[in-house]
Write a structure and sequence with these properties.
It is built from 15 helices and no strands. The chain has helices at residues 2-15, 20-39, 45-51, 55-64, 70-78, 86-97, 101-112, 117-137, 143-147, 162-171, 175-182, 193-208, 210-229, 235-251, 256-273. The longest helix is centred in the middle third of the chain and has 21 residues, at 117-137. 33% of the residues are buried.
Length: 277
């Protein structure tokens, strides 16, 4: 299934001549393939749950939080029982907006610096795809999931999943159908691709200009805080996501010759497909 999904962008590049419209459609097909890779491990729920890692991010985050999870500290300090604050709303919407932000950043790059778009898209979607492969190899539970598990050798986690609570409050009856669209794999927390792709977007936008870069960095910082506060990710997940983006940024250009040869091969197939037209 994933072979077919990841072949779709290549097939489009053979069937249709290069244009901005094709670039956008190719990115859309790449994300379709990513979603297939992201959700597939959760097709067999019981098998995935038998393999899930729960404890190690808790241990690391308690070290980082000097004995207590940063999420627990933030929720105890900032959250209010039975009342939603303006800060809660801003952070939840920052989280929800992530579904658009990495792609909006690429759209801006395509508009302002089209010559840099292929490399920017390759690095952005490399982060997505490498992260999805980690979800297959080592499914890891987020804080809110760990808090709902039976207590064994570890203490029960006093972590709220505030994004879902706020969604039920804000969207009311519409929340269930809306969440079912985006909640395809709850055990895909390490690394945090929310944070990883936002860090990559900020770095790429900085190449376009200082203002765009500052906006990207501000968003990534706000999102990182939101992910920990809302109970969606451990700080450990964010650090791993930042490391993933840094690795792609550092080592990705070294793959350029290989990717260039692959692109030339696809371009050759495209030329053959359109020969005589």
């Amino acid at each position: 299934m994933q072979t077919v999904a990841f072949a779709a962008p290549v097939g489009l590049c053979v069937a249709v001549r290069r244009s901005r419209t094709r670039d956008v459609a190719t990115c859309a097909l790449q994300m379709w393939a990513y979603v297939a890779a992201y959700e597939s491990p959760h097709d067999d729920v019981s098998a995935q749950e038998r393999r899930v890692h729960v404890d190690y991010p808790i241990v690391i985050d308690r070290v980082l939080g000097l004995g207590e999870l940063p999420t627990v500290r933030l929720q105890r300090t900032l959250a209010r029982a039975n009342r939603w604050t303006t800060l809660d709303g801003v952070l939840v919407w920052t989280h929800w907006s992530w579904f658009l932000v990495p792609h909006a950043a690429l759209a801006y790059i395509l508009w302002r610096r089209p010559e840099t778009f292929p490399a920017a898209a390759a690095m952005t979607y490399a982060v997505f795809d490498i992260g999805a492969s980690v979800y297959w190899v080592a499914p890891t539970a987020p804080p809110w999931y760990a808090a709902g598990q039976p207590v064994t050798e570890r203490d029960e986690l006093a972590v709220r999943r505030m994004m879902v609570e706020y969604g039920e409050f804000f969207w009311r009856d519409g929340w269930g159908p809306l969440y079912s669209v985006f909640g395809g794999n709850p055990l895909a927390a390490m690394p945090s691709l929310h944070f990883a792709t936002s860090v990559m977007a900020a770095a790429l936008l900085r190449r376009v200009g200082p203002v765009a870069g500052a906006i990207g960095a501000g968003y990534a910082t706000t999102l990182g805080f939101a992910l920990v506060y809302l109970g969606e990710h451990y700080v450990t997940d964010l650090l791993a996501g930042a490391a993933l983006s840094a690795a792609v940024w550092r080592w990705g250009p070294r793959a350029a010759p290989t990717l260039g040869r692959a692109a030339a091969a696809v371009a050759g197939l495209e030329a053959l497909a359109h020969e005589g037209r």
